[in-house]
Amino acid sequence: MAQKARVNRNLRVIQKTISKLLTGIATVGLVTSPVAAQAQANEQASTQTGAPVGAQAGMQAGGAVEIDNPLGIPANVVLLGQSDPNNRRATALVNGSVITGTDVEQRVALLVAASESALPEEELQRVRMQVLRNLIDETLQIQEAAAQEIVVAREEINERYAQVAAQNFGQDTGKMDAYLISIGSSPVSLKRQIEGEMAWQRLLRRQIAPFINVSEEEVRELLERMEASRGTDEYRLGEIYLSATPETREAVRQNAQRIVQQLQQGGSFVAYARQFSEASTAAVGGDLGFVRLETLPGEMQTVARSMAPGQLVGPFEIPGGFEILYLIDKRQILMADPRDALLSLKQISISFAPGTTEQAATARVEQFANTVKTMRGCGDAESIAATIGAEVVTNDQIRARALPEQLQSALLQLQLGQTTPPFGSVTDGVRVLMLCGRDDPKPDSGPDFEQMMEQMENDRISKRAQRYLRDLRNDAYIEYN
């Protein structure tokens, strides 16, 4: 019975962790538990450097470390003949299955659409090469599922496609079809992506889930460690890691800088992490989950400690390559977060007629601010606002964290009946928020036993799946045109 329960639980884990469409239309980040994230960060601290753990420690301490060269490759490599991978046409045969240039371009279109900005041709070429690698992996996954007699029916693919349409286009698959075609992609391309995801999910359900075991002792130990860490700061970080050698260091640094520029111009961090990051977190959009800084390499600790939520930093150098960090959120372990308070607010606003002069607008804002000061709480808001033609809108169910960061701290310091300072513009209108009620969150009790076990199994399934895919790549016959 215990084995059956474990298998069923593992199936749920796979359903949750792998059922993510790798597309710019519906990008989703995965939040892992503090402990599972620590385990992932610890593994990544060693895998990112490309060196043994002991060698990594030496590099972090600033000591000189001799890098192993198991293949005996000389330091000064001379290539015989002309070999420019950037001039290769982006087509391939993967164990006999064809990946065409059209397949690549249609997937690239999804990424460009998610970035919401045009990419220079040099950047597009790098995107194409990465997308080709992703398509090769997807093909290997579908082929392996078929070899294990796992078939994804066309009806199931269409059903999942309709679900994506429902999330983004109000259940109108025709609108999503038209959108995909308009950006240079196609419904066939997205459905192929869906097929790959579902085939891989079912393959892991059969080949990995039944063999994942987490003992009760391990779970209890981690729960005890979490309780001992109560109140410690945790950082939810997104990362893009690019490996580099002394020979490629400058080229990789420039590539990382171009990625940062695209992100600063509105590009999707999740989409870029999926396509470019070489860390194990690439599959979940670069999301490290909530981690304690001491579990990270020294350079990442230093940078993350000074970051504010929403801030992007990088590229900066770490042993083995370059890192781009994005601070998604920050919290304290097992402590209530004030930003989770449920607020009851009244928004009091004024608008300006087109052509309003700066002098007239200044006078109206001053009148508005003075009138708001005379209000005696929320019960007085509508009647006083009416005297100056202001509009009042009530919202009784809004989380503090759902508001812009500049307003969060201001609102959380208010008493009932008090208002924020006026904010806005002549174009958008000027407004204040009045606090009419606040329900503070309860202290976080953390995950229970079952949740923690599921999270630990989730982490182990993910690592085993990565090794599975690596083996498929090693055994594949791939020809490029």
Overview of this protein structure:
The chain is α+β, with helices and mostly antiparallel strands and 481 residues long. The chain contains 16 helices and eleven strands. The protein has a domain at 338-439: Chitinase A, domain 3 (Roll), CATH 3.10.50.40. The strands form three sheets. Strands 4-3-6-5 form a four-stranded antiparallel sheet, sandwiched between helices. The protein starts with a helix and ends with a strand. This is Parvulin-like PPIase. Keywords: Isomerase, Rotamase, Signal. GO terms for molecular function: peptidyl-prolyl cis-trans isomerase activity.
CATH architecture designation of the domain at 338-439 = Roll
Unreliable stretches covering 5 or more consecutive residues = 1-69
Provide the β-strand percentage band.
15-25%
Q: Biggest sheet, open or closed, and with what strands and sense? A: 4 strands, antiparallel
Total beta strand runs:
11
CATH topology of the domain at 338-439: the name is Chitinase A, domain 3
Shape: globular
Task: Identify the strand order in the major beta sheet.
Answer: 4-3-6-5
Straight-line distance between termini: 53 Å
The count of helical stretches stands at 16
H/E topology pattern? HHHEEHHHHHHEHHEHEEEHHEHEEHE
Query: Roughly what percent helix?
Result: 40-55%
Rg, rounded, reads 26 Å
The CATH class assignment of the domain at 338-439 is Alpha Beta
The average pLDDT score comes to 77
Q: Specify the structural class.
A: alpha+beta
